[in-house]
Each structure stands twice: as C-alpha cells, then as structure tokens.
C-alpha cells in the first residue's frame, strides 16, 4: 500500500514539476514570439537573453502583498484561483506522452479530460461572484456562457473521434492513427476543435471574459499576488492540455510522421512534444495577429456555425463508416 502510494506521488511530481517549468517558460516564449512579430525585442535583460524573466516574475508575484477586498466573500475569493490551478493540473494524469508513458491509462480517459475542462469554469464563476464587484461578475458570466457554447460542439467532435477509434482510451485513440492521422479524414473537425479550444481557454480572439477595453481585466480584476499568479498558471496549463488533446485526437499523439526507420528512432515523447509545441505557437500567433471578436459574434459562431457543422459531420462520419463497414470492433 505504501509502495503504491509512493509510486503515485513520484509519478505526479514527475509530471507537475516539468509542467510548471513549461508553463513559466511558455510565458517567455509568448513574449519573445509576440515581440518578434511586432518588431521589438521582448524580455532580454534578466539573465542571458531574458531566460530568468519568468523566475523574476514569479518571485515578484510571490513577494507581493495579497489584498482581500473588504466586500468580498473571503473564503470563496481565496478558493477560486486554487480550484482553477488544481483542475488545470489534474487533466495531465491521463495524457499519454508515449507508449505506456502515462500515469493512469483509464478506459474513459477522454471523458475524464472533457469533464475536467468543463469544471474549470467553476473557478472563474466563483472568482467573479465572490469579488462582489460588477466587472468580475460580468467577466464570470461571459466565461460561463462562452464555455457552454463551445463545449457542445467540442463534445460532438470528440464523439466523432471516439467512433472512428472505437474507444474512449487515449492510448487506443493514438494507436488507431498508426496508418492515417485523423486530421486528414476529419480536417473540418480539427479546425473547429482548435478554434473551440481557443474559446474554451478564454484566449484571443475569444478573450471576452477578461477584455481590457470594457471589463478592465474581467473575472480576475480584484486579484493580486499569488491569487493572480494561480489564475495565470492555470490559464497557460489549460492551453498546454488543450494542445495535448488536439495532438492526441488528430495528430497521432506520439506516433512519427511517417513509418520509416530514421523517424522511428526518435522517442515517442519527443514527437508528442514537437506536435504540442506547434499548437502552442498557434495559440501565441492567434493572440498577436487576430482582433478580438464582439460578444454577439462569439455566441453566433458557437451556436449557429460550429454546433450544426459538428453535428452534421458526426452524422456524415457515422454514415460513411456504416456504409463501407468500417466501424471499429
């Protein structure tokens, strides 16, 4: 019993510590990448080429005073960023980085991930309501409506992939793409999934819950120091996990691009990291290049475009699989 508990704790630390380091340096990559796109340098003072900037930012937020608004519900106010941060870490225990390289290879891994991503809205709603301020509350309402709108289409997209793979297990979904990645037959679903992932993580051009122009900073406007830092870490960890989900569902996870000898020598986790990095850069590019949507445009896209399209493609995929007797056993 103790041995099994110790193994679980070590496995979690092996995932959580590199993840936190990745999130910290994700922020540096984003600032450098956006600086390059806008023809400026980005962080380059703290450490060699600015490599210590994320550590300096973390230390600054850790050392700052935590200010609790006098009208806030203090218990929920403190609990909200913790909920968001913990949920952003919980999803990683079912992500397979390579063949057998997963903490918990459960049979309903995709449902677990979908449930965790759905629960993340509770941290934002709790933060907006407990702040007892109108701007955070408006941001929380926006986030809730936005997540509901896009999770419906994400659900249909995931069901389509599950039907093609014949399993809810993430490792089985990856192995089902050994001959052809699902991005090729399900390309429209891939596009909708990635755009929905932007909306699900409240990222540009769908960052309406924290729009600076009208909501100052949205649901986290009353937060400072470590409360703000936990929201910040949770948001970037969610971006990484959505990038990992896109890689697993459509780009063959840890499988190489072609089944040839030189590529097969590269370890599976390396392939997974390369593919995940492509989507991370796409998140950054979207923030630097695209203007923010209006809120009515955001809702219209989710309910009037993505919902009928994802449902229609699901029915079309099932019809093709039944017609050609391709349904997996």
TrEMBL record:
It is found in: Membrane; Mitochondrion inner membrane. GO terms for biological process: aerobic respiration. GO terms for molecular function: NADH dehydrogenase (ubiquinone) activity; NADH dehydrogenase activity. It comes from the Eukaryota. The keyword Transmembrane applies. Keywords: Membrane, Mitochondrion, NAD, Transmembrane, Transmembrane helix, Ubiquinone. InterPro entries: NADH_UbQ_OxRdtase_su1/FPO (IPR001694), NADH_UbQ_OxRdtase_su1_CS (IPR018086). Coiled coil: none annotated. Its EC number is 7.1.1.2. Pfam families: NADHdh. The keyword Membrane applies. The chain crosses the membrane at residues 6-29, 74-97, 109-129, 150-168, 180-199, 236-258, 270-290, 302-327. It catalyses: a ubiquinone + NADH + 5 H(+)(in) = a ubiquinol + NAD(+) + 4 H(+)(out). GO terms for cellular component: mitochondrial inner membrane. It is a multi-pass membrane protein. HAMAP family: NDH1_NuoH. Belongs to the complex I subunit 1 family. This is NADH-ubiquinone oxidoreductase chain 1. It comes from Aureococcus anophagefferens (Harmful bloom alga). The lineage of its organism: Eukaryota, Sar, Stramenopiles, Ochrophyta, Pelagophyceae.
